[in-house]
């Protein structure tokens, strides 16, 4: 066994206050009942969280997946990565579409509750892929916040956290920066709203990761740990030492999950807009990425 493999396995066993996990898209294009073996692999890799993308085209037995995850001691996240009707949008100009959006998101919260998932996370405030090139109407944030308050209240009744993810301005016009997501949360005024900080999406929106993390610190729930090319963390432009230093200082003890698209699954990654081969092997991607992140965490603790 090589030194690099031994070192990787040691770091994967490193005990940590932070909870490491991985997204289903590293292993499968669409979650289904025949994918339960992936949960076994996630546990084997020493992780404690698994994120599943849901949507109208992702039918599966929620209780079966939830029961298997619970038996392995895995916490589950869900996010709206599957089919999501464009008209179901909490930020829409049309009141009827905002109402459709709230109803649709409530159904995803129901899915999370059936799974026993701890959180429903993503750009829930709008619809990713919709970028309105205009000056925002004065009521856009307030009306979106109204819907988020209702969603957070419903999710709280089902014991599911709502975690909002700022995204790049190439994906949404609504919430790109830490300041924007905190403003929206303040307007929504609900304790069940948290922040999912994605190191890939934020790289085009900020000048300082330290400042960005401190801005969201009061509501920070989880991180998507991705390199600037959406590859495995390390060796790119993201300042990981800076990130983990801040996480230590703010006392972060939440979730850190890897996210990318497996480029060996037919045209899956290409259809998701990933045209370079950053994840040909989900297991190798995970082992390398988690080992690197845990080295960064250990260094920050010294």
Descriptive account of the structure:
This protein has 302 residues and is of the alpha/beta class. It has one domain: TIM Barrel (Alpha-Beta Barrel). 40% of the residues lie in helices and 13% in strands. It contains 10 helices and 8 strands. It has helices at residues 3-12, 36-44, 62-72, 95-115, 140-157, 178-188, 209-216, 240-249, 268-271, 282-301; strands at residues 19-23, 49-53, 75-79, 119-122, 161-164, 193-198, 220-224, 255-258. Strands 1-2-3-4-5-6-7-8 form an 8-stranded parallel β-barrel, surrounded by 5 helices. β6 (193-198), α7 and β7 form a beta-alpha-beta unit. The radius of gyration is 18 Å and the shape is globular. The protein starts with a helix and ends with a helix. The model is unreliable at 1-16 (pLDDT under 50).
Widest sheet: strand ordering: 1-2-3-4-5-6-7-8
Strand content: 5-15%
Estimated radius of gyration: 18 Å
Tell me, rounded to a whole number, the average pLDDT: 94
CATH homologous superfamily assignment: Divalent-metal-dependent TIM barrel enzymes
- What is the end-to-end distance? 29 Å
Residue runs with pLDDT of under 50 for 5 or more positions: 1-16
What is the number of beta strands? 8
Work out the helix count. Answer: 10
Which class best fits the helix and strand makeup?
Answer: alpha/beta
In terms of quaternary structure, what is this?
A: single chain
**CATH top-level class:** Alpha Beta
In the residues, how many domains can be counted? 1
Shape: globular
Instruction: State the major sheet.
Output: 8 strands, parallel, barrel
Order of helices and strands: HEHEHEHEHEHEHEHEHH
Fraction of residues in helices?
Answer: 40-55%
